[in-house]
Each structure stands twice: as C-alpha cells, then as structure tokens.
Specification:
alpha/beta; Rossmann fold; six-stranded parallel β-sheet; three-stranded parallel β-sheet; 10 helices; 39% helix
C-alpha cells in the first residue's frame, strides 16, 4: 500500500511556519505582506481556486484583496489594472486568475506583470531563471511539487523522472526543476509521444499534468514508483451534492497498489500550489521591503 503524499497536511505546516514569520514582522511594527487576486468572469473552478488563496492569506495573517471583473471587461482595461498593481507599493504580489475570456490575450497580460510581483511564476523573466541559483519566484505548482517531495524526504538525485505534459505552467518548469536543482534524469512526454506506457513504466518518479482523467492506469507504471498527480478535472457525478467530482490524471485504484508514494486528488498538489503562492508572496515582500 502506498504512502499518501498529503498536500493538505504539508500546506498546513507551511502556513503555520509563515504565520509565525508574519507575527514576527508585524510585532516589529511592519505591515504584513499583501496579495491581490484578479478574477475575471464567473468560472466556477476559478472562483473556488481564488477563494482558497484568499482563505490561506487569512490563515497566515496576510492582507488580501480580491478584484473582480465581468467577463466583458476589455483587454485594455485589464492591462491598465495590471499596470496599477505593478506600481502600487502596497501590493507585494498578485495573480491574474486563468483562464481569461477569449478576447483577452493571456500572453499580453502575463508579459505585462512585473516579475518582482509575479507570485504565480508565469512571466518569461521568472521562467528563465528557474535553473539559476538567483531565481526569484518559481512557478507555483512545480514549486509545490518539489516542496512536497522534499517534505517526505523523497530523493530525486539520480532518479529517472517522467513528466507527462509540457505546458509552460507545469510540465516544462517541472522538468527543469527536476533535472536542474533535482539532479534527476528527466523524460518529458506529451500528446505527440508515441507508446506513452513505454516511458511511464521506466519512471522512478512520475508527474502527470495533462487534465485527462484516468490517463495513467496500473499497467503503465512499475512497482515502487512515486506518483504525483497534478491533474484536477471536474467530472459530472450525480451522487455528489455539487453535481461533480474531481478526478486526477491517474487512475488511483489501479496505480496506488503498485506505488510507494502517491498524491490523492483532491488533497495532493492543489493545496501545495496555494502554499507556494503564499511562500512566493513572502519572498516578494521581503525583497520589496529591502528596496524601500
């Protein structure tokens, strides 16, 4: 039976550590870190994610602000708000929750965010520093995965890590972190990879982030594999009060018996992503306060 990589527990531990740090900061008369979330539209999943981030801020003692816009907001209006947040010295970090309406260019919005306030770690400048010792703000989800592995003392050095998914939000930065600081041998697979199972069966550590429920089944992994399931997809489920269930990219029932460690969905990577945002905000805050 696999050991569950409990992201909720680790995230709570991180929040407790950050809360202690915030108390020391405010006891000295300094303002607390301030995180802002910008939410466009009425996407249910986005509202849930943002709510979780705001609650985490309350737990650790951060100031948090939620800015909401109707999905009809123009691209120019949103970019103007990004400019305002960039220049606001009272804001240490902010996120523009994705996805955005089709008429707004995600690339333009991300490119406009100051790297020093990019607590999601999405900007090209922060992406380019992932494998450098002087990196500033890492992409939140890959950062959370690495932190989760570290907290369970799972060694990556010399291991064969297979990442399924090559997005710039998770897959690619995940591969860089594992191969660079993690000293692992990394294979990155994606939609065009032929015979996917030939690669996943060789993985000592398997990270899956494609958003396709049940993609990885028991026959596709070897005994003792460490499995990190980043996928979180809403699947209709009439037995649930909300009418849906959250499913990962890994078929838990058939993979868990062969794994040594495995993340659940929900309760695995999701809480760690929020914890990473909290940690990044503290990093941004400390750098801003030094500059001031």
């Amino acid at each position: 039976m696999a050991i569950i990589l409990d992201g909720r527990k680790v995230a709570r531990d991180i929040e407790s550590e950050i809360a202690e740090e915030v108390k020391k900061i405010t006891d000295k008369g300094n303002r607390p870190p301030h995180l802002v979330a910008v939410l466009v539209g009425e996407d249910g999943a986005s509202k849930t994610y943002v709510s979780g981030k705001m609650k985490a801020c309350d737990v650790v003692g951060y100031k948090s602000s939620l800015i909401r816009y109707d999905e009809t907001i123009t691209e120019e209006e949103l970019l103007n708000k990004v400019d305002d947040l960039n220049e606001d010295k009272g804001v240490d970090g902010y996120i523009v929750q994705l996805p955005l309406p089709e008429h707004i260019s995600v690339e333009k919005v991300i490119d406009r965010i100051y790297p020093s306030k990019d607590v999601d770690g999405f900007t090209p400048a922060n992406f380019g520093k992932i494998d450098q010792e002087h990196h500033s703000l890492l992409p939140a989800t890959p950062m959370g995965v690495i932190e989760l592995l570290n907290r369970y003392d799972i060694e990556t050095k010399g291991k064969h890590c297979v990442v399924v998914g090559k997005s710039h939000i998770v897959g690619m930065p995940m591969g860089i972190l594992l191969a660079g600081p993690g000293d692992a041998t990394v294979t990155i697979c994606h939609i065009h990879t032929q015979n996917l199972e030939e690669h996943t069966r060789k993985a000592d550590i398997l990270v899956v982030a494609v958003g396709k429920p049940g993609l990885i089944i028991g026959d596709m992994v070897k005994e003792g594999v460490v499995v990190v399931d980043v996928g979180t997809t809403r699947v209709p489920d009439a037995t649930k009060k909300k009418g849906f269930a959250l499913k990962g990219d890994v078929e838990f029932a058939t993979v868990e018996p062969k794994a040594s460690y495995i993340t659940p969905v929900p309760g695995g990577v999701g809480p760690m992503t929020i914890a990473s945002l909290i940690m990044n905000t503290m990093i941004a805050y400390k750098k801003a306060m030094v500059l001031e």
